[in-house]
Amino acid sequence: MPEVIPVCRALAGCVEGDPLAAPPVGCSPADATRWFQRNKYPLLALATSAPAWLAGDATFQRELAAERAWYDTQRGEYLAVRDAWLERGIVCLAIKSAGNAPSFPHTSDNIDILVRREHGPAARDTLRRLGYVELRNIEEPRKFLFRKFHDGRCVSAIHLHEQVGWEVGFMDESALWARIRPAMDDPAVNVPSPEDAILINLAHACYENKLLRFNDVARVRHALRDAGDGLDWAYLERVAASRGWLDGLAFMLLVHAAVETALFGATLIPRAALERLEQLVRAHEFIGRRLAAIRAQPADLPLNLSYPFCKRLYYRKILADPARTAGQRRYDVAATLLAGIKLKSGLRPQPGAIVTISGPDGSGKTAHARALVEALDLADIKASYVWNRGGSTGLLGLVSRARRRLRPAAADRDSAAADSVTRRRGRLASPPARFAWSWLVAADQVGTYLLRARLPALRGRVVVLDRYAYDTAVEMDASLPAGARWSRLAIAAMLALVPRPQLGYVLDVPPETARERKRDEAWHPDLEGERDAYRALAQRFGLRTLSTEGAFARSNDPLIREVIMTYMRGFETWRNALFLANPSQMNPPDRIWAGQGPGGAR
After folding, report:
1. From CA 599, how far away is CA 602, in angstroms rounded?
2. What distance in Å separates the CA atoms of residue 197 and residue 223, rounded to the nearest whole number?
3. What is the pTM of this model?
4. What's the CA dihedral at 27, 31, 32, 34 to 10 degrees?
5. What is the DSSP letter of 450?
6. With contact defined as beta carbons under 8 Å apart, do 192 and 105 qualify?
7. CB atoms within 10 A of CB 153
8. Which distant-in-sequence residues (6+ apart) come within 8 Å of 381 by Cβ?
9. CB atoms < 10 A from the CB of 348, how many?
10. What is the DSSP letter of 481?
11. If you ran DSSP here, which 8-state letter would residue 140 be given?
């Protein structure tokens, strides 16, 4: 957008009840919608006040409907958590909310919730009981990320804080708790006092995001207006000084004042407070230079505060924090420096694991495997999806594909790769042909899974296998006549030599349900026998049998939760230890993590 300040000012006017009669020059209604979204400002706040040119736009209405649905989902999950916590005497606080409607902070990447430190273990236990998975790979000191998956998607993400901080603490939590209040528009949401809302939102913008968004400006402006002349400026200065970031607070308040003035014509910060803030900034020349540079540039939002500058402020805060001892400050410097190196380098050390999903056709293997990989990706776990079927890879795969090209009437991928049992048995009537086929398939499967599963797991990936050697064993056995001892020996050798999965599942479904799901499938006559064969393999190899009859969520929800929680039990790695990033290096682990997880490659 070429005219940055007029556009931002016009869009800010939509929030303040002073909208233009037409979109600003160079800004379409769709552009305006994306500007609010980019700045994390809730479209729900504009639902009844947006000007006609914006309210009537198809893009705005579509995005508003999507946001409303996401708000309803997240808030419903939050209420269930809040009520369960209250039953255990746990009070929670939405730390980044300032009380401006909607107070529930649904546009954040996750819902930041504070509980008292002594309530932390019980609060985490409650979340696990409600079906949340704890992502220990994204843990920070006294800060824990939980996600809940339902029907193949994430429906809630809660960042549970025992302190207001980003690697290190920024607030006086005892004073913070004494000043909380229910939001006027949503009594189910506790919000900080105006003073604390200003401190938290500006600290988060500077020290965590290095970015000032319009939503931050709107929250601080609401807090300033809410408190009016009664705002306790001495409290702001005292809290920031008590944790070593008074210089950062002064800088951010002056940046806010500059942006607020550009957007609304004036700032709500009183002149006396501005003079005090200017005095604080003059003591630090590098802060004054950065402030002057920001004041000289157009007030585009989100406003880049400068990564190097904010990092300099961050380490100044750590070294000046009077609430920490000298030894603790040195450790904080080392830990945060290593965390930054790990983040910027893209290094994500994690243990590897192999997860297999087997079962008859129609049991839902592919849907469950793909949903699991998507959940792992969202949980910031490096994962790979692999589909394989006996006879469809390597040299045998080339032969199979050539045969399919000569037979264009073949059905879909699975049915084309597996001829009918009757025809296959006919081709395997010859003992030499049967012997060669069975051992070639077995060797192909062992080589395939060593290359596509074991090797990536050794390199630290979670490999999710849609079909495994167990499925090949069932199909091979069904194709062999009675007494084919040497061929069945090939099956036994294959099962002994393929990598053993850390978690293996057999999806169980009645034959009639499988037929209903895949009406065009070429079914062999003994589906009950096939089902029994899968159950026998599950018992023999310690696989988990999971019924997939009924709604998808009924089986997928527990599968995703079990895989992620089991994986997180063994998340510690020596490579993470080098970065001081193992969960046990940041927080005392809860008792649930005393056991060991998948124990994949470290």
Report:
1. 8
2. 7
3. 0.90
4. -160
5. I
6. no
7. 14
8. 137, 350, 462, 564, 567
9. 15
10. P
11. B
pLDDT at 514: 77
Q: How far apart are CA 556 and CA 564, in angstroms?
A: 12
Counting DSSP H helices and E strands in the chain, the numbers are 27, 16
If we measure between CA atoms, which residue out of 589, 597, 594 comes closest to residue 124? 589
User: What is the sign of the dihedral through the CA atoms of 145, 148, 154 and 158?
Assistant: negative
For the record, the structure tokens of 37 come out as 């979204």
The 3-class SS string of 58-90 reads: HHHHHHHHHHHHHHHHHHHHHHHHHHHHHHCCC
pLDDT at 416: 40
Distance of alpha carbon 313 from alpha carbon 321, whole angstroms: 12
Compute the distance between CA of residue 41 and CA of residue 35 in angstroms, rounded to an integer.
9
Residue 596 DSSP SS3: coil
Residue where the block lists tokens 């705005």: 60
User: CA angle 168-594-600, nearest 5°?
Assistant: 95
Nearest residue to 354 via CA among 374, 369, 371, 375: 369
Taken in order 23, 25, 29, 32, the sign of the CA dihedral is negative
Give me the pLDDT at residue 412, please.
46
Burial class (CB in 10 A: 0-12, 13-18, 19+), 535: middle
Pull the structure tokens for residue 336.
Answer: 């945060």
C-alpha distance from residue 157 to each of 77, 99, 148, 477 (Å): 9, 21, 7, 45
Secondary structure in 3-state letters for 348-390: CCCCCEEEEEECCCCCCHHHHHHHHHHHHHHCCCCEEEEECCC
User: 337 Cβ partners below 8 Å, 6+ apart?
Assistant: none
| DSSP string covering 169-203 | E-S-HHHHHHT-EE-SS-TTSEE--HHHHHHHHHH
Q: What is the mean pLDDT of each run of 10 residues along the chain (602 residues)?
A: 63 80 86 95 93 94 98 97 98 97 95 97 98 96 97 96 96 95 97 98 97 97 95 97 98 96 94 97 95 88 96 97 96 94 89 96 94 97 93 64 54 44 59 83 93 96 96 87 80 95 95 77 70 94 95 96 96 92 94 63 34
Which pLDDT belongs to residue 422?
Answer: 54
What pLDDT score does 307 carry? 96
Give the integer Cα–Cα distance in Å for 493 and 446: 9
In sequence order, the 6+-apart residues with CB closer than 8 A to the CB of 583 are 136, 137, 139, 571, 572, 589, 593
Q: Are the CB atoms for 151 and 131 separated by under 8 Å?
A: no
Site of tokens 């000032």: 212
Going by C-beta distance under 8 Å and a sequence separation of 6 or more, which residues neighbour residue 267? 256, 257, 258, 260, 261, 274
Burial tier of 52 (Cβ tally within 10 Å: 0-12, 13-18, 19+): exposed
Residue whose entry in the numeric block shows the structure tokens 């209405």: 61
- Report the chain's C-alpha Rg in angstroms: 30
